[in-house]
Amino acid sequence: MQAQATSVGVCPECGTRLEGGFSRNLGRCMICLLRVGFDDAEEPDAASICSVADRLGN
Amino acid sequence: MPATLAETTRERLFASTRWTMVLDAGESQTPPDQALSALSELCRIYWRPIFLFLRRQGSNPDDAQDLTQGFFAHLIESRAYARADPEKGRFRSFLLGALKHFLAHARAHDRRQKRGGGIILGQLDTAAIAEADARAASLQPWSAERVYEREWAETLLRQALDRLAEECALAGKDELFKQLNSHLSVSSEAAVPYEEMSLRLGRPITTLRSDVARLRSRYRAILREEVGGTVADASEVDAELRHLCEVLAAAD
């Protein structure tokens, strides 16, 4: 099972809203795919990403 | 056509240095043909963000295609890339800035030049154009800049996943890739249970866990190489990944 949009449009893995981050073409949340690219020590947690969205008023 | 190991190795080296080679051309450290080859490859990969930016700005599909082609021709002919600032040089930012400059002076470019980008891209695939165009329609509420950056992230990820799929196919593990690739981004155990995959693939669970770990590790390396090919210095890879995460998180 991949990270599918839930009824409230939130990624079940990273907790961010999927309207902007979910790719129908790739079939999953792009934020989750990008986060794999961080070295483990550098990987930001979902909360820090959500806080950016909150900061921008989204 | 399956790639050889040598080709795969060359691709890996090339992928992580594309933009650096273009920037070096401005200081004559890279032969022009290599820089042109690197720039052409970057344009071939990242034409969709340009096309969707133009569509979001109001160009019809034909004009957006012409302008995309013409813009790439202009990049080559004007050697605009040679004036990019290596200190600030992410290819994503450079390309959007150069496009806006190109559009601001669009009247100076005739129709013939608009078609000249075929030197780089060839004829854009009709199906790919249709797919990109359908996506443009679904992104109406967003600014052109947000559409551009979101499409950039998707193009980058598609490139990395395609490379991973090719490598697996080359190793005769395409079926394993199809079954396991949904685990690439899953840090929890929420994906298809290993027990179920074990039955489906006839592989022990411990082996599957190792397979997933190796696949994720290889995906991480490829993704970082692809990002590395768009920034001026390898130290910027994490910052670029973080930027794209922030754009996506903010884009709803």
List the keywords.
A: 58 residues, mainly alpha, 2 strands, 7% strand, B: mainly alpha, 14 helices, 0% strand
What is the number of beta strands of chain B? 0
Question: How many whole angstroms does the radius of gyration of chain A measure?
Answer: 11 Å
Shape summary of chain A: globular
Rounded to the nearest angstrom, the radius of gyration of chain B is: 20 Å
Largest interface, counted by CB within 8 Å of the partner chain's CB = A-B, 35 and 37 residues
Notes on the structure:
The complex is a heterodimer of chains A (58) and B (252). By secondary structure, chain A is mainly alpha-helical. Chain A has one domain. Chain A is built from three helices and two strands; from the N terminus they run αββαα. Chain A has a two-stranded antiparallel sheet. Chain A is globular and about 25 Å long. Chain B has one domain. The termini of chain B are far apart. The model of chain B has no long low-confidence stretch (mean pLDDT 81). With 252 residues, chain B is mostly helical. In chain B, α10 packs across α11 and α10 crosses α13. Chain B contains 14 helices and no strands. At the A-B interface, α1, β2, α2 and α3 of A face α10, α13 and α14 of B.
Give a short summary of the structure:
Chain A has helices at 18-21, 30-35, 46-55; strands at 22-23, 28-29. Chain A is mainly alpha-helical and 58 residues long. The model of chain B has no long low-confidence stretch (mean pLDDT 81).
Outline the fold blueprint.
The complex is a heterodimer of chains A (58) and B (252).
Chain A lengths: L17 H4 E2 L4 E2 H6 L10 H10 L3
Antiparallel strand pairs in A: 1-2
Chain B lengths: L4 H11 L2 H8 L6 H14 L1 H10 L4 H18 L12 H14 L6 H5 L2 H4 L4 H13 L5 H27 L3 H7 L13 H8 L3 H24 L8 H14 L2
Helix pairs in contact in B: 2-3, 4-5, 4-9, 4-10, 10-11, 10-13
